[in-house]
Amino acid sequence: MIAAKIEEYAFGGLVASIGVFTLIDAGTIAARDDNAVGPRAFPYAVGILLVATGIAAIIATARGKLGQAEEGEDVDENVRTDWVTVGKLVAVLIAHLVLIDLIGWPVAAALLFFGAAWSLGAIWWKALPIAVVLALLVQVVFAYGLGLSLPAGIFEGVPFLDG
After folding, report:
1. Are residues 92 and 149 in the same domain?
2. Are 91 and 76 within 8 A, CB to CB?
3. Which of 148, 151, 145, 157 is nearest to 32 (CA)?
4. Is 157 helix (H, G, I), strand (E, B) or coil?
5. Is this structure's pTM higher than 0.85?
6. What Pfam families does this protein map onto (predicted)?
7. pLDDT class for 41, splitting at 50, 70, 90?
8. H or E stretch covering 89
9. 17: domain range?
């Protein structure tokens, strides 16, 4: 019982600490205009929520409200890890990291989204158009909504993709 309380306090403290780190680090993000919602807004919101969640967990633990132990009722312990799928996901992520600077965010992200979906069993001809639309949407939101410039790569000069 005492070990469970210590773990709950540690969890709350860790979450709050990550929130404080996020808030401090968000202050170092360069912004074009201090009056507009920019690249600092989301990290500040996440940091505040993390600090509040960590404090709430610590208060709940102090009041005796401990988390329930996991019974694993929906987990089949006889199923082994699918290392092929894990390997595909790792390969897709590494390819994404390498390709961002070479071909730009939109293409690299589309390959990441498609590769992750395909690795997890999606039908390729359904996953591919969704991945392309999602990657382009993220590019446009970052460029115009947040004022951040993701590398356009081969789309350099395309007005709505070049932040």
Report:
1. yes
2. no
3. 148
4. coil
5. no
6. TctB
7. confident
8. helix 83-103
9. 2-62
